[in-house]
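> example.struct
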């Protein structure tokens, strides 16, 4: 894994998170307005997507997921601030929403070279970069600081999100997984302008050729192109990015929940995608180290 002992200077956190939240209002998107035949989804339910093969439970409760605590080094890449809001959709008319308080929101994604942490097959066993969780506050909101994810063969860049609610005994009451995506033009610009994303191979999958992006949601509504509803609303600040997304879940819709219920290496619609590429990572820029 390539990493930095000290992350690069960042803009004011409040400024970036505010910009990310404003992106929801300022950038047009289908997110949260999905229209389909299933009653809950018809009124704005977020599509559920597969957890994929790299889910690992029991991660740290933290805001900054760039740090690998086993090496005390930060992953290389363009900083990405995330502001997520989670709402619960009423399952009866008039299908209003309200903030979902106390939900656990886990995120995980590949680093700039397309590798996931804590995976023996990736050579990252015991590491925990690019993984973590937060708990929604009274506004239903959580925030994370990470880096723009890299690609691996068969998949377009994405970030996995798992949202879980719990009963009074601490048992999982509802388990929802999805993935958020990036516009290809933004990804191309990021990869072309930062050494951390330099690869010997060209990216082989874009949004329109990614089987999960173009596939169905867990409840088959929509039946295709579910990823078009999962774009992050991005704003750029000083060469870094802030992204926002509003998740709307319906705990009564078991068809849209994670069918594996958190079982690792589970696949849903769209299949597993390709395996991450092997090879030697690029030489870090001056002032950085690698392990």
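> example.seq
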């Amino acid at each position: 894994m390539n990493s930095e002992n000290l992350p690069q200077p960042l803009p004011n956190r409040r400024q970036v998170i505010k910009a990310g939240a404003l992106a929801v209002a300022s950038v047009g998107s289908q997110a949260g307005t999905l229209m389909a035949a299933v009653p809950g989804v018809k009124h704005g339910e977020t599509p559920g997507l597969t957890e994929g093969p790299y889910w690992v439970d029991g991660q740290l409760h933290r805001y900054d997921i760039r740090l690998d605590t086993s090496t005390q080094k930060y992953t290389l890449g363009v900083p990405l601030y995330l502001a997520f809001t989670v709402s619960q959709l009423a399952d009866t008319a008039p299908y209003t929403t309200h903030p979902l308080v106390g939900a656990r929101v886990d995120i995980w994604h590949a680093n700039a070279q397309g590798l996931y942490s804590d995976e023996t097959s990736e050579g990252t066993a015991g590491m925990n970069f690019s993984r973590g969780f937060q708990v929604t506050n009274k506004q239903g909101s959580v925030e994370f600081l990470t880096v723009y994810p890299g690609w691996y063969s068969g998949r377009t860049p994405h970030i996995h999100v798992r949202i879980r609610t719990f009963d009074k005994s601490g048992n999982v009451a509802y388990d929802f997984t999805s993935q958020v995506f990036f516009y290809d033009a933004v990804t191309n610009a990021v990869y072309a302008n930062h050494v951390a994303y330099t690869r010997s191979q060209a990216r082989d999958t874009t949004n329109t050729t990614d089987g999960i992006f173009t596939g169905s949601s867990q409840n088959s509504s929509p039946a295709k192109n579910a990823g078009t509803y999962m774009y992050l609303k991005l704003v750029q600040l000083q060469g870094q990015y802030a992204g926002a997304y509003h998740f709307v879940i319906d705990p009564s819709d078991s068809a849209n929940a994670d069918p594996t219920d958190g079982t690792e290496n589970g696949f849903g619609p769209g299949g597993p995608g390709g395996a991450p590429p092997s090879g030697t990572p690029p030489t870090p820029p001056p002032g950085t180290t690698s392990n």
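> remarks
The two ends are 6 Å apart (CA to CA).
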